[in-house]
Design a protein that fits this description.
This protein is α/β, with parallel strands linked by helices and about 300 residues long. It is about 40% helix and about 20% strand. The chain has two domains: about 180 residues, Alpha-Beta Complex (inorganic pyrophosphatase (n-terminal core)); about 120 residues, DHHA2 domain (Diaminopimelate Epimerase, Chain A, domain 1). A hairpin with a 2-residue loop joins β10 and β11.
Length: about 300
């Protein structure tokens, strides 16, 4: 049995890849099952509920199976209970990886806008159409991860697969707006849930980097209304994880700008030379939509020089 999975508490890209890839493997005659660990992020919960798609949960025991890891390629993204030796395949789309930590895994890592694009291409190459529900999930993953085809890493491959998946899924034309509106509702406890859901710890040049990310409409209003609460959540996360650096990246889905909040003094000092960012205390304003992948790559470059 092969389990297709992703990091715990996945976003729509990771969730869709794990679920859809199991379908493709089964269509190719392989015994495969998707497993999702941790509570999926708000955008996943919304699309499952809105379109009546059955949620996928965890499995147990997990000690005697092989695994395919999707939309992640580092040890921090490996769900608890799995060993790196169990991973036989990795499909990801980010620059920073730890492929060397998975001795038995073949890998496909390509810098497209979404891992869902890579999974969709595999369906099309195999001559297999995903189910309508999985096509909708993959389309949502591409739309969400590329911020509706506006971020710098988007490619024609993302657009081509999105068009193919839209035809299969019969998704509404305003799917992007509906997904973004749903994930921007951070009232009450949804704020802490969203921050916790998109939190990651990476090891970059031997340093632990705690990261959080929000992709929403009008983050300026959110930080004005709930800054103290957000700073407390970020600081606690950075300290609890024993991280050397910690930050929250808040992307404005309407304006194409970003806010960057530092979780400690060391991060603020490190980010002093981050290009295109104007700082007021520990809060930075960028006139461009800054990707977490870009920030992490910049941190990697900066730390490599020290």
């Amino acid at each position: 049995m092969t389990i297709t999975t992703t990091y715990e508490g996945p976003d729509l890209d990771g969730y869709s890849c794990a679920v859809a890839y199991a379908e493709l493997l089964r269509a190719q005659g392989k015994e495969a099952k998707a497993a999702i660990f941790g509570e999926p992020q708000l955008e996943v919960q919304w699309i499952l509920s809105k379109f009546g798609i059955s949620p996928i949960g965890p499995i147990s025991p997990i000690g005697s199976i092989t695994a395919v890891l999707l939309d992640t390629s580092d040890l921090e993204g490996l769900p608890k209970g799995f060993s790196p030796e169990q991973v036989v395949e990795i499909i990801d789309h980010r620059k920073l990886t730890q492929l060397e930590a998975f001795p038995n895994a073949k890998s496909q890592v390509e810098l497209v806008g979404a891992a869902a694009t890579l999974v969709a291409e595999r369906f099309k190459k195999a001559g297999v159409e995903p189910s309508r529900g999985n096509a909708l999930l993959l389309l949502g993953g591409i739309i969400s991860n590329t911020q509706s085809f506006t971020h710098p890493q988007v490619s024609d491959r993302d657009r081509d697969m999105a068009a193919w998946l839209k035809e299969i899924s019969q998704a509404p034309d305003d799917l992007a707006q509906r997904v973004f509106t749903a994930k921007s509702d951070l009232s009450g406890e949804r704020l802490a849930q969203a921050l916790d859901g998109d939190s990651k710890v990476l090891v970059i040049q031997g340093k632990r980097v705690a990261t959080m990310q929000l992709e929403i409409y009008n983050p300026e209003h959110l930080i004005a209304e709930r800054r103290e609460e957000i700073e407390s959540i970020l600081s606690t996360f950075t300290q609890t994880e024993g991280a050397d650096y910690g930050y929250l990246n808040m992307k404005n889905l309407e304006k194409g700008t970003s806010l960057i909040l530092c979780g400690n003094k060391a991060t603020r000092l490190l980010f002093a030379s981050l290009s295109g960012v104007t700082w007021e205390g520990n809060l930075g304003y960028s006139t461009e939509r800054t990707l977490r992948k870009q920030i992490n790559a910049w941190i990697d470059d900066q730390l490599a020089r020290t």
